[in-house]
Design goal:
6 strands; globular; 6-stranded antiparallel beta sheet; mainly beta; 92 residues; 4% helix; 1 helix; 10 Kd Chaperonin, Protein Cpn10, Chain O
Amino acid sequence: MKLRPLGNRIVVTPLTEAETTTSGIIVPDTIDKEKKAEGSVVAIGDGEKIQKFNLKEGDKVIFGKYAGEEVKVGGTEYKILTDEDVLAVVVS
């Protein structure tokens, strides 16, 4: 099953957050992690605003941790984000 976002929306697969810091410290769930979330673009809507971002499938984007709507399709979790939810594109 495939999702096709409407208007100024994109569908991303959220990347898992690291539970261990680079120095090896394990971060417990009780600590409020207000880091921004990152995900990989799976599908892009045909809205004018989102098209201006020049996104393509496979791009990594950063969005607010609580932004967008979470959906589960075929056992895979996705986030549907609007153009305003996308904070940045990760350029490598």
